[in-house]
Structure formats: C-alpha cells, structure tokens
Specification:
Helix 7 packs across helix 13. This protein is about 55% helix and about 10% strand. The chain is an alpha/beta fold. The relative contact order is 0.13. The strands form four sheets. The protein has a seven-stranded mixed sheet, with helices on both faces.
Length: about 625
C-alpha cells in the first residue's frame, strides 16, 4: 500500500504493520458519570491512612505559620494588602509543606520496603505492544533505543509476547525517508522473532493523542496491553517485563506508571536535573505512591496500560475555548489517568521498578520553552476539575499540576510586595515615592535576627526534601560509593544546592511569563525538544532573559539605595546575571571531564544504556551512507 508523505507517495512494503485489529475508542462526555462494566472492584487499602499522615501535617504547619504571620502583621490593623500577603504566604507555603510531608512518608516507605522484602504471584501471559510516538525526531536515536530494548527483551525469559511500534507523525520528508531506512536496517539486524512495525500517518491530527488513538482504533484489539514510550524513552528488558507482570497480576489495574530516571546529561543544567532527580526523587516518589495508591497519576510515557480499558474509558473530548473554538487537551496524560479511575480502573505508580529512563532538556532556555507548553496544558486542567465522576484524588492531581505553575506568579507577587515594603514604614519604596500614603500598611519592624530566622525557616522547608533524599544516599555506603565516594557526593550535593538557588529565581520569572502567555491566549507551537548540548547565541539569550535582567537590576538598585531589604540580594544577583547563568547552563560538563554532579548511572551505566549507545552509533553510521546502500 502507499504511504503518503505530505503529497509525496512512498510505497509501503508489506509487513510494515500487522493485520488490523480494530477497537472502538468512544469520546468521553465529561458532563456525565461513566463506569466501565469490565472494571473489577477491589477492597480499600491502607492508602487512606497514608493520606492522613501526609495532608493534615501539611495543613497544620501552614496554619501555624499563618497564625504567627498574621499576629506579626496585625500592628495597626490588617488592610487589604496584609490580607493579600497572608493569602499568598498560605498558598505558597502549603505546597512546600506537602512536599516535606510526602518526602517524610517516603522515608518511612523505603524503610518498610527494605524490611518486608518482595513476593511475587504467578502471571498470566499477555500480548504487549511497545508504542513509540515520534515527531521529527532523530531516527538513529529513536530506532537505536528500540533496537536496544528489543535485543534485551529477546535475551530474557518472559511469559509475555512483545511487539514494538514506531508511530510516526513526522512532517519533514527527509526525516521520514530516514525513518524508513532506519526501519529497514533494524529489521535486517534484529532476529526474526523480534516484531517491530512502523506506521506514518497521512496527517498528524490531534498530535500525540491522535497518534495513539489511531493505533488503538486500528490495531489495539490485537494486544492486551500497550506500554507507551516517548521518543527519548529507554527501558531495560527487566523493567518492561516487571510492568507487564504487575499488570497481569493485578486485574483491577488499568494503568501502571514507572518512575523514569534522567540519563544522557552532558551540559551543566542537564546534569543538575539528572543529579537532583536521581538523588532526591526516591523519598518523594515513594511517598507519592503511598498516599495516592490506586488513584495515582500518569506522566504520558514509560507506563503500561490495559488496552481495552484505555479504549473504553479514555477517549478525550475537545474543550471549548473562550472564542468558541474547540481546543485539544494538551496535557492529556493527567486526564487519561483521571478518566480510567473514574471508570473503575486502578491507576498505580511503582517507583520500585528500576530501569526506566528518559532524557532532559540540555539548557535553561530549552527547559523554559518546554515548560511553556506544559504550562498551557496544565492550566487547561482547571477547566476539567468539574468533570462528573472524577475521584477526588484525580482532581487533586490536576489541581496540583496547574498550581505548580501558578505558584511562580504567586512567588513573584510576594517578592514584589516584600521589595516594596520590607524595610519598614520609615524607609521603603512606597514611602520614598509618596511620603504620605494612607493606603500603605504599617509594616512591623523587622530586626536582623527576625530576618535571619524567617530566611532560615523558609530555606529549611524548601531544602528539606533534598536533604531527606541525600540522607538516603549518605547512609547507604554502597550507594554512596556509586556516586564516587562520600567526598565526591558531598561536593555534588553542595554544588547542586548552590546552582538550584541561583537558577530558581530565573525559572520563577520564566514560569510567570508562561502563565501570562497562556492567559492572554498565546499558543505554543508543537516542536520537537532539542536534545543536543550547546548554548544559544548571546543575542538570543539577551532577548530571552530581558525581563529577569531588568527585574534584577531594579532590585539591586533598591538594595544599594537602602529601599529594598538586603535579604533579597541572592534573588537580585540571580536575576541580574540571568544571561551569563543561562549561557553557563549549556556548557559541556560531561562526567568524562567533570565528575561532579555524577550519578551511579553515569559511573556504572546499566547494560541497556551501553547497548542503546552502541545501537545508535551503528544506525547513525548506516544512515550516513547513500540511501541505496541501506536497501
């Protein structure tokens, strides 16, 4: 049959896709409750107990802080500005407290898991499809990862049958040609028992959501489960089999999410993200898995899904926009998890399954650009919170996703108020411009000791989850050795803290910009993520970070003039130097030349990563030859 490539027909050779096995995927109505008759029930677990151990402490800590803060501000009465300040403090601090509670619960969970060990029930064989949606990606990397995963799966004993599908939405004809050549090369190099297929859509309607729905409706009926991957995803054979085994054992599970670890970091910024996720993620992920339990979330990749459950329950509608146009749901994964749980299927998160990997943006600019797309999608969730039949925890996940971006404007507004008023009634920005301002609150005097105590308390709460994660490494000598030893780990930990303090204010401004862009209706283009190392030109950085630079210079001038609190100096320095810090983020700091911020995956790479690098290099060499040589 013919493969259409934007007006150019290419002959699709027999065997690119298996025999069709259609499966209906109806669009869900968010105004009507829905239950799937095929979803088995289950007994309640002790997850409710873990929720009580997580949320009440966060609420109580926030309430105590607000009580003290209100008493402190009550000098001369409370006006609208004080109430606004108290509200902002409460909103921002609750989420900090919640992360501390979650990490604390995770420490308990890690200890309990080590004490009780693991038991396994028998599994029922399943036919599992590994789905890799791609859009204008590097074919040698995508197909190289696919080759590595299939090679490992073929070498391991498993009760299940696995097939891999490259589902292309590529619009670039040159890249599409390379995809076909890479596919031919891969089929030639892999054993015959490795089933790998390729399909490119005529049009990329509904983006990744439409790409997966197209596969479900065309071939989903032939597979019990689908393991959804991203273009940069890589999973070990053991991890893939473990997810398939767990789905087989749990008849109530509609989706099981693994916890991907970051790999492939070469730049400073990428290595910061990689070290942070690997080191601090354990307690947070374990705590989240404990209190969310069977109402967990989905992050769009490296998760296994029961195909028929997904088809029956997770067909996404469009959202009516403010101008009357129907809009695609951007961050579809949260919503799909909520719809599965609404229909009666369990959604689980298993961070104990290791061997699940993904890559991270190489620079601060790339991270911020990706954040703009995610912000647009996550803020859409505010319009889905009222959908009928959603579980309260599913609603909370969606709210949390939106709040994670709205917190940046809240922090920015708090910073602005603090900058205007924090030096007290006698000498601050407002009194400087208006000596007699009746609307200005009577700001209580803040001594140096008070300032230091408040600063230490806030930083302690912000850093507590990181300290907990670092302690789980420090008290395991073998794991600490995998980081390069105690001295190397200590240096890396301190370096990450310093760098995170420097980059956090810049990201606060960038996320504030992302929220404002979303609210004024600026839609982000769907472009493939840049994955290669390398900084941007100076002119690009100057344009991108102009707002941060202006804010930082203004803060610094206020501090020098004695109108702004001296304790905002770290933020002022970060914003003033946004451009050089952004340039620094893209410099190559690979572990070969700079061992700091290294992780066990870098110092002793798992077999799947080594194999993927080898397969990528092979395919890159083959694709660089003349097209005729690849036939």
């Amino acid at each position: 049959m013919a493969l259409q490539m934007d007006g150019v027909k290419h002959i699709q050779k027999p065997g690119l896709m298996p025999r069709p096995a259609p499966l209906q995927m109806p669009v869900q109505n968010l105004r009507v409750r829905f239950g799937d008759n095929d979803a088995p029930g289950w007994r309640r677990t002790r997850a409710r107990l873990w929720k009580y151990a997580t949320f009440p402490p966060a609420i109580l800590t926030t309430a105590l802080l607000l009580t003290a803060f209100t008493d402190w501000l009550a000098t001369g009465g409370l006006g609208w500005l004080e109430y606004l300040l108290i509200t902002l403090v409460g909103i921002t601090f609750f989420w900090i407290s919640l992360s501390v509670s979650t990490a604390s619960l995770g420490l308990l969970g890690l200890w309990l898991r080590a004490k009780r060990g693991v038991t396994h029930a028998p599994v029922t064989p399943q036919n599992v499809a590994l789905l890799v949606p791609v859009y204008n990606e590097n074919p040698s990397d995508v197909f190289g990862n696919a080759a590595a995963m299939l090679t490992e799966l073929n070498s391991l004993p498993a009760a299940h049958d696995f097939s891999l599908f490259i589902l292309s939405d590529t619009r670039d004809d040159r890249i599409a040609e390379e995809e076909l050549r890479a596919f031919a090369q891969l089929r030639q190099s892999l054993p015959q028992e490795c089933e790998i297929y390729y399909r490119r859509r005529d049009t990329n309607s509904d983006r990744k959501t439409g790409n997966l729905a197209d596969w479900v409706e065309g071939w989903g009926g032939g597979y019990d489960a689908m393991l959804v991957l991203d273009a940069d995803s890589l999973m070990s054979g053991e991890a893939i089999i473990a997810l398939a085994d767990e789905l087989s054992r749990d008849a109530s599970a509609g989706l099981i999410q693994s916890a991907p670890e970051l790999i492939g970091a070469e730049t400073l910024f990428a290595r910061l993200q990689q070290f942070s996720g690997t080191t601090y993620g354990g307690p947070l992920a374990t705590g989240l898995a404990m209190w969310s339990n069977r109402e967990s979330n989905y992050w769009g990749h490296n998760a296994i899904i029961r195909t028929r459950a997904f088809a029956s329950c997770a067909g996404l509608p469009r959202l009516r926009g403010l101008l009357g146009k129907d809009r695609l749901i951007m961050s579809h994964d949260y919503v799909e998890a909520g719809l599965l749980r609404r229909a009666g299927w369990a959604v689980r998160f298993l961070p104990a399954i290791k061997g699940s990997f993904e890559e991270t943006p190489p620079t601060l600019v790339d991270y911020a650009l990706r954040d703009r797309r995610w912000c647009q999608g996550n803020l859409q969730h505010l319009r889905i919170l009222g959908a009928r039949g959603l579980h309260p925890v599913s609603r909370f996940h969606m709210l949390h996703g939106a709040i994670s971006y709205l917190l940046s404007p809240a922090w920015f507004l708090l910073l602005l108020i603090w900058a205007l008023l924090a030096n007290g009634e006698g000498k601050n920005v407002i009194s400087y411009f208006s000596a007699a301002n009746p609307t200005m609150p009577i700001w209580p005097h803040m001594s140096t000791v008070d300032s230091i105590l408040i600063l230490l308390f806030m930083y302690a709460m912000l850093l507590a989850p990181k300290v907990m994660g670092a302690l789980t490494v420090w008290f395991q000598p073998k794991l600490r050795a995998d980081y390069g030893g105690q001295r190397q780990f200590a240096i890396s930990f301190v370096a990450e803290i310093i760098c995170s303090v420097l980059y956090a204010p810049i990201m606060m401004v960038q996320q504030t910009v992302a929220v404002l862009r979303t609210f004024v209706g600026l839609r982000e283009q769907w472009t493939p993520q840049r994955r290669e190392a390398g900084s941007y030109p100076l002119v690009t950085l100057l344009k991108f970070h102009l707002l941060e630079t202006v804010c930082g210079a203004t803060l610094m001038a206020g501090i020098i003039g004695g109108l702004v609190s001296f304790w905002l100096l770290p933020i002022a320095i970060s914003l003033c130097f946004a451009v050089p810090l952004s340039a620094l983020s893209g410099l190559n700091f690979s572990a070969r030349n700079w061992p700091h911020l290294g992780t066990p995956i870098e110092f002793a790479a798992p077999q799947i990563i080594t194999l993927a690098k080898h397969r990528r290099a092979e395919l890159r060499k083959a694709l660089n030859k003349a097209p005729e040589a690849a036939e």
